[in-house]
């Protein structure tokens, strides 16, 4: 694999910045099941930019648990991860990178794009299993920091009541997500890291991540 010198990280970020501010195309159908969702506005904003898709053409299923396959797809699509800046001797195959991902699966391309854009996905990830809040945070932040070329910063950690329940590998990403207002704690200052994240919660986090990236690019 050889990184193309003609496409710099800054250029890629600028392209993303432009796309975030415009609608790629408007879908004719609307989600019929998000009227009472706390993430209605965020979901529709992402849908209008063609950055998220529903489970069906008219259902987003906001309260459903997010599967690993859906989580990786959401991150890859939402951050517009691609292989545009990379040369390969031969086309990469998902099955060469992940033991449980079939090359013909609808999410195979998302796994490939995420992998080559800095998202640290386990090689043995089971696409059918539900993704936890801490896992989605870790993968989303990894993609965001790579795409935005964001510097690693030293921060004063936010006190989290259930900090002991976290996977220590994810703690830094979680803390940065709180600092950048991509995530938030509940009323008891819990993060609930091991809870399976819902599709609407993931949509809110993706929306917040894109808002942060847009603000970072403009600063």
Major β-sheet annotation = 2 strands, antiparallel
- Main β-sheet, spatial strand arrangement: 1-2
End-to-end distance: 33 Å
How many domains is the backbone divided into?
1
Average of the residue pLDDT scores? 87
Structure summary, number of beta strands: 2
Number of helices: 8
**Spans where pLDDT lies below 50 across 5 or more residues:** 1-28
Share in helix: 40-55%
Category from helices, strands and their pairing? mainly alpha
> What is the string of SSEs from the N terminus onward?
EHHHEHHHHH
Shape call: globular
Q: Report the β-strand fraction as a percent range.
A: under 5%
Alpha carbon gyration radius: 17 Å
Give the structure's gist in a few sentences.
With 219 residues, this protein is mainly α.
Task: Based on the model shown, name its key terms.
mainly alpha; SLH_dom; single chain; Subtilisin-like serine proteases; about 220 residues; 8 helices; globular; disordered N terminus; signal; peptidase activity
Describe the protein:
With 219 residues, this protein is mostly helical. It has one domain (2-150, 198-218). The protein is 40% helix and 2% strand. The protein contains eight helices and two strands. Strands 1-2 form a two-stranded antiparallel ribbon. It starts with a strand and ends with a helix.
SSE inventory with pairings:
Elements: E1 2-3, H1 9-20, H2 40-48, H3 68-78, E2 86-87, H4 94-97, H5 108-115, H6 133-147, H7 171-179, H8 199-218
Antiparallel strand pairs: 1-2
Helix pairs in contact: 1-8, 2-8, 3-5, 3-6, 3-8, 6-7, 6-8
């Amino acid at each position: 694999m050889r990184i193309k010198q003609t496409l710099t990280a800054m250029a890629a970020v600028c392209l993303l910045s432009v796309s975030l501010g415009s609608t790629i195309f408007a879908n004719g159908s609307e989600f019929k099941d998000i009227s009472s969702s706390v993430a209605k506005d965020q979901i529709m904003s992402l849908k209008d930019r063609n950055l998220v898709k529903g489970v069906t053409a008219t259902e987003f299923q906001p309260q459903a648990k997010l599967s690993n396959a859906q989580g990786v797809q959401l991150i890859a699509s939402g951050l517009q991860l691609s292989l545009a800046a990379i040369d390969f001797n031969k086309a990469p195959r998902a099955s060469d990178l992940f033991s449980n991902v079939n090359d013909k699966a609808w999410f195979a391309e998302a796994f490939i794009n995420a992998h080559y854009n800095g998202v640290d996905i386990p090689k043995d990830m089971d696409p059918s299993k539900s993704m936890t809040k801490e896992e989605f945070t870790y993968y989303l932040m990894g993609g965001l920091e790579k795409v935005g070329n964001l510097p690693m910063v030293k921060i004063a950690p936010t006190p989290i009541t259930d900090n002991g329940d976290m996977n220590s590998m994810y703690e830094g990403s979680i803390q940065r997500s709180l600092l950048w207002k991509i995530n938030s704690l509940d009323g008891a200052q819990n993060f609930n890291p091991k809870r399976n994240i819902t599709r609407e919660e993931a949509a809110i986090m993706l929306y917040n991540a894109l808002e942060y990236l847009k603000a970072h690019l403009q600063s």
